[in-house]
Amino acid sequence: MRCAILADIHANLSAFEAVLQDIEERGGVQEIWCLGDIVGYGPDPSACIALLRQQPHICVAGNHDWAAIGKLEISEFNPYAADACRWTGVQLNTGDVEYLEGLSLTLTRDDFTLVHGSPREPIWEYVTSALSARDNFRCFDTRYCLIGHSHVPAVFEETDAACEREEMPAILRLGVNRLIINPGSVGQPRDGDPRAAYAIYDREANIINHYRIPYDIEETQKRMAATGLPDLLVERLTNGW
Ligand code: ZN
Fold first, then answer.
1. Per-residue pLDDT tens over the stretch 10-57
2. Cβ(131)–Cβ(118) under 8 Å?
């Protein structure tokens, strides 16, 4: 069985389509595991929800998914994210709202726990350091946990003595140690590489392949500018920050 692991699509339809095409070219997958934040920031929230729903998939809720439907206060968002969130809310149709409303905070598949932020605090917490990862290893029961939210690919490994943060390799071999894995963001990468990020889990080979996919960034930026989304959100896609 092969599953694609996608996080933080953020209404970036060009990036999402490029990733889906790449998945097809690699022989396809049985299921998409989506780690939340389908919407927010980007120009095509409704189209991205529709496209995801056409795929066999499971998905957990992200902070932007909840904020867009009023399930979360946007007062803690920065002003740009809050602007985008208000705009996003207006774009969603009834079916989109119902779909986002129904997303769980946590899901389990095989030996994986899926959350958006962290197993301890699925909606809000960023796991970016070995310290925060260490505490979170106590908050899930499976061997592996998949997270998004920071938009930065990373692997956190629990060892006997400690917890280590590692760069996400192109091929991650799953072993006995427990891992928290962030595949990075499809629609708004923040690690200095503007290409869309995602991963494919291959159960038989027991590996996770990590990919970076070029997409038509200018197309997304043009559509964002046309909708009046904040310039800063448009510009950041150029360099992936
Ligand atoms: Zn996000």
1. 999 999 999 999 999 999 999 999 999 999 999 999 999 999 999 999
2. no
Can you count the helices (H) and strands (E) in the chain? 8, 12
- Alpha helices (H) along the chain: 13-25, 45-53, 63-68, 79-91, 94-101, 130-136, 217-227, 231-239
Distance from the CA of 161 to the center of ligand 1, in angstroms? Answer: 31
Distance (angstroms) between ligand 1 centre and the Cα of 68 equals 12
Q: What is the pLDDT of residues 102-158, one digit of tens each?
A: 999 999 999 999 999 999 999 999 999 999 999 999 999 999 999 999 999 999 999
Q: What would the CATH number be for the domain defined by 2-239?
A: 3.60.21.10
Distance from residue 91's CA to the centre of ligand 1 (Å):
18
Q: Quote the CA–CA distance of 4 and 2 in Å, as a whole number.
A: 7
In single-letter form, the type of residue at position 48 comes to C
* Ligand 1 centroid, distance to 184 Cα (angstroms): 10
How many angstroms separate the CA atoms of 183 and 175, rounded? 18
For residue 104, how far is its CA from the centre of ligand 1 (angstroms)? 16
- Residues 6+ positions from 167 with CB-CB distance below 8 Å: 153, 154, 155
